[in-house]
Amino acid sequence: MNEAQPFSKLASHGEMIYLALRRRLEAMSPWKWILLSIFSAVFLSVCFLTPKFWILRQPTPGSFEWDRATTFIESSKAPWLAPTEAAMRWRLLPAWVAYLTGLRGMLALVIPWLGLVVWLGTTTWLMAKRSGDRLLGSASSCLLATSGGALAVTNFLGLNDGWYLTGLSVVTLARSPIALAVAALVCPWVDERFLIALPLAWLCRRHLVREGHLTNASSAVVELATLAACVAFYTICRLALSTGMPGGSDLTFLRSVREELPRYLSFAPLGWFMGWRVGWLFILALPTWLWFRGQPRHAVVLAAAIATTAALLLLVASDISRTIAVLSPIVLVFVVICATQSASGPRWRLILLLAVAVNLLLPFAHVSHVKIYNVNSLPFELLRVWKAPGPVTR
Q1: CB within 8 Å of 121: residues ≥ 6 apart
Q2: CA–CA distance, 115 with 164 (Å, rounded to integer)
Q3: What pLDDT shows up at residue 253?
Q4: DSSP secondary-structure letter at 13?
Q5: Residue 253: CA atoms inside 13 Å, Cβ hemisphere, count?
Q6: 134-144 and 328-339 helices cross at what angle (nearest 10)?
Q7: Per-residue pLDDT for the chain (394 aa), expressed as one digit of tens each?
Q8: Per-residue b/e over 232-249, b at no fewer than 16 CB within 10 Å?
Q9: Which residues contact 268 (CB under 8 A, 6 or more apart)?
Q10: Helix, strand, coil % (nearest 5) of the chain?
Q11: Is the distance from CB of 155 to CB of 65 less than 8 angstroms?
Q12: Lower CB density within 10 Å: C or N end of the chain?
C-alpha cells in the first residue's frame, strides 16, 4: 500500500490539474476554444518537431521541403493540365481551389496549411461532441499534430494531407449522413489514400454506434449504400476524365511503385513507428480491448482492416511515415471509448496528455522510400538559420 501511495497521489494531482483546465475550456466560447486548440497543437508541434526554416525560406530545388510545393504551384496555375509528377495526376481539387480563388505562386501554399488547420479544428470539435469533454478534444488534436501526416504538412510545403484526413475524421465521428456523403464525394479528389482508408474509418464509426457514442446514426446498410454510391460516382468520373487527360496511365505509375517496393520494404517498420510513435499503443490497444471484452469477431475484423490498410498503402506510396496517419480513426475511437468509461476514464485522459508529451519529446524522422530525414527541435533549427544566412543548395 505504501508503495502505491506516491502513484495515487500523483494521479490525484494530475486529475485535479486536468479538471481545472477542463473548466477553463468549458467557460470559453466555442470559437475561442477551437482556435486555442488549433494554435496549441500547431505551436507545440512546430516548437518540438520543427521545420527546417533555413530551407523553407526560399525555393530549394531537389529538397524534400520544396519538391511537392513546386508541382502544386505549377498545377494551381493551370489545373486542367496533367502535372509533371504522376502521383499528383488525380489530386485535382486543391489545385482547382487555388486557381478559382486566385491564389497564385507562393500564395497557393496557404491551402495545405489551411487543410491542417481544418483537420485539427474539425477533429477537436467532433471529439468533444462524442466524449462531452472539451479538453479531451483539444488533447486529441495535439496528438494528431505529432503524427507523421501532420508533420509532413508542417515540415514540407505543398502537401494537402490535412484535407483528406479531415474527411476520415468526419466519416469516423460525424453523426450527419450528409457529412458522410460530402466527405466521400470530395476527399478522393484531394488524395486517393482516402479511399484506401475509408473502410477502416467506417468500421471505427460502426464501433462507436455499437458502443452508444454515436446516437441517431443511419443504419449500416444505408451508410454502406451511401459510401458505395459516392465511390462509384468518383470512379465513373475518373474513368471519363482519363480518356482526355494526357500523360502516362495509372497502371504505369503503380507498376513503377511496385518495382521500387523491394528497395524500401525494409524501411516500413521504422516508417510506421515514426508515423505514430506512442500513438501505436492506442492503435494496438483497440482490437486487443475488443478481444478481451468478449468481441473476438470485431477484434479480428478490425486488426485485419488495420493490416490491410497499411499493406495497401505500402504498395501505392513510399512516403511511409506520412501515409500511416490514415490510422487516425483507430486512435480517435479508442480515446473516446476509454476516456468515457466511468471507472478508468480519468486515468485514460491523463494517459492521453502523457502520450502527447512523450510524442513531442521522442525523436522523429520522416521515412520516405529509402531515405530517413531527421527532424529537430526549435532551438537547433533557429541556430541553423543563423548559421546558414546565404542561399541553400542541396
Answers
A1: 34, 35, 37, 38, 141
A2: 8
A3: 66
A4: H
A5: 14
A6: 150
A7: 455 555 566 666 667 777 788 888 888 999 999 999 999 999 999 999 999 988 888 888 888 899 889 889 999 998 888 776 777 788 899 999 999 999 989 999 999 999 999 999 999 999 999 988 899 999 999 999 999 999 999 999 999 999 999 999 999 999 999 999 999 999 999 999 999 999 999 999 999 998 888 887 788 899 999 999 999 999 999 888 877 555 555 666 667 777 778 888 899 999 999 999 999 999 999 999 999 988 999 999 999 999 999 999 998 888 999 999 999 999 999 999 888 775 556 677 888 889 999 999 999 999 988 899 999 888 888 887 776 655 554 4
A8: eebeeebeeeeeeeeeee
A9: 314, 320
A10: 75, 5, 20
A11: yes
A12: N
Of 187, 43, 34, 179, residue with least CA distance to 121: 34
**Amino acid identity, residue 212?**
G
- 376 sits in the region (left: phi over 0; alpha: psi -120 to 50; else beta) called beta
Do 38 and 30 touch, CB atoms closer than 8 A? Answer: no
Q: How far apart are CA 278 and CA 286, in angstroms?
A: 14
Query: How far apart (Å, rounded) are the C-alpha atoms in residues 253 and 354?
Result: 42
Q: Say if residues 302 and 203 touch (Cβ distance below 8 Å).
A: yes
Instruction: Please give the Cα distance from 141 to 355 (Å, whole number).
Output: 12
Q: Please choose, from the candidates 149, 129, 145, 147, the residue with its C-alpha nearest in 3D space to the C-alpha of residue 137.
A: 129
The C-alpha cell at 196 is 484506401
**Cα distance between residue 80 and residue 161, in whole Å:** 21
Grid cell for residue 222? 444505408
Contact (Cβ atoms closer than 8 angstroms) between residue 127 and residue 332: yes
Report pLDDT for 213.
85
Q: Are 173 and 332 in contact (CB under 8 A)?
A: yes
Look up residue 74 and give its three cell numbers. Answer: 505549377
- Joined grid coordinates for residue 173: 465521428
